[in-house]
Amino acid sequence: MTPEEFRTAGHELIDWIADLRSSIDERPVLAQVQPGEIRSGFPTGPPTELSDLSSLLERLDTKVVPGITQVQHPMHYGWFPSNASLSSVLGDIASSGIGSLGISWESSPALTEVEEVMCDWLRQLVGLSDQWRGSINDTASTACLVAMLVARERASDLAQNTGGLQAVTSPLAVYTSPQAHSSVAKAALLAGFGWDNITMVDVDPVTYAMRADALADAMAADVAAGKTPAAVVAAVGTTGTTAMDPVAAIVEAAAQHNAFVHVDAAMAGSAMLLPEIRHLWDGVEGADSVSWNPHKWMGTILDCSLHYVRDVELLERVMSTNPSYLQSQADEQVTQYRNWGIPLGRRFRALKLWFHLELDGIEAIQERLRRDLANAAWLGEQIEAADDWEVCAPVALQTVCVRHRPDGLSGEALDEHTLGWARSINDSGAAYLTPSMLDGEWMVRISVGVEATERHHVEQLWDLMQRAVG
Ligand SMILES: *Cc1c(COP(=O)(O)O)cnc(C)c1O
């Protein structure tokens, strides 16, 4: 494809995207397809004839879009807001169009340095001090894995340079909460800690936040058993209920054992753009690393996950191998992001953050987050006030966890009722909510915060819910 052919086709594609987004609320939220249905709409072998873009877009419409669960839909309340602001989409397109190769500073100085600038802007915007330096990863899962690798090496005095984990005699232990995201246990397992050395620390029965006293007890018990506490992962905004682990107290408990503290704020980091919310991660300055996803609530299109560390030297000692063909004279003066994480090649992700901040504006983003907090609080109040309905966890941010508990229903019958009314809404395509377990019982998570979701959409959801149980 020549640049001139691209120009024509590109305009057509942009029109197609704009049409899709402006008609999104006419579509079902949940993809109404059966397993295998999309695959079977494709030929079994690769194409033998050339297509033009118009014909491809037609097939995109008929063969692909029906298989997309529309998370940009204003009635999407599932999982978490995965906002893909159109301003950041433009930045993503610019990044693809530039087509740079991010394997070293030399291979694209701007890619490295704009990433440094964006990480620093976002650091300031969430109120972190200038002791932090950041990079952009694909996901929070990756950041957590890197944190676990660094924690392992810190606790083992860089054992990777000799016999590795296999030569460490005192087992290294990791602590997190049962409410933490599944990626935390996955990262600890991939880093070689092993299930036997992962402790799920008790949470408070009301707030679902990790109990720092229980953490201290678990670490002391491990030390008595000959283990070495290596890392704690604190969740700022847990997956189930958006609970806030007490970071200051966790940092203090971890410091007794020189354990590494990683703060997983994948979801709630966006909220820290609001000064009035920042008290929820008090103590974060004492942690060793922090990650959060602008690609969730803030709305920079996926993938865009920020990872901040205080000790860059340690990070680079663990993550760098520095083969000769990548060494250069600039090494002393520049950041080589390949030494900050797992992949060698990186995309120019900073552009979508830059476009998002410049084209939407920080104040507008903040106002949208405040709108969502108010909408979630409103919904929580309606549910609390209604007969037979309950809010089953504190509404810390924009997630509302709810059960409808009619008289006489409990146990399995209640679970069936809960799954039933959630499924009836989801299957209808009118809205999407996520059923999830809490304390061994099903509940329904309503995650408010899609860019397009206004108060009247939340009112409409509350209506749907009341009708679904009726
Ligand atoms: C979404 C989420 C993750 C995983 O994020 P990815 O970027 O998809 O890896 C991890 N932790 C928490 C608390 C989350 O909300």
Give a written overview of the molecule:
The model has no long low-confidence stretch (mean pLDDT 96). By secondary structure, the protein is α/β, with parallel strands linked by helices. It is globular and about 60 Å long. The chain has a 7-stranded mixed β-sheet, sandwiched between helices. Strands 8-9-11-10 form a 4-stranded antiparallel β-sheet, covered by helices on one side. Helix 12 runs parallel beside helix 14 and helix 13 packs across helix 14. The longest helix has 24 residues, at 362-385. Helices cover 40% and strands 12% of the residues. The protein contains 14 helices and 11 strands. It folds into 3 domains: 3-68, dopa decarboxylase, N-terminal domain (Up-down Bundle); 94-359, Aspartate Aminotransferase, domain 2; 363-469, Aspartate Aminotransferase, domain 1 (Alpha-Beta Complex), CATH 3.90.1150.170. The structure holds pyridoxal-5'-phosphate. Pyridoxal-5'-phosphate binds next to helix 6.
Topology (SSEs and partners):
Blueprint: H1 3-22, H2 37-40, H3 53-64, H4 86-98, H5 109-125, E1 133-137, H6 140-155, E2 172-176, H7 182-190, E3 198-200, H8 212-224, E4 228-235, H9 247-255, E5 260-264, E6 289-292, E7 305-309, H10 312-319, H11 350-360, H12 362-385, E8 389-391, E9 399-404, H13 411-428, E10 434-438, E11 441-447, H14 455-469
Parallel strand pairs: 2-3, 2-4, 4-5, 5-6
Antiparallel strand pairs: 1-7, 6-7, 8-9, 9-11, 10-11
Helix pairs in contact: 4-11, 5-11, 6-7, 6-10, 8-9, 12-14, 13-14
Bound molecules: pyridoxal-5'-phosphate.
The site of pyridoxal-5'-phosphate has 14 residues, from α6.
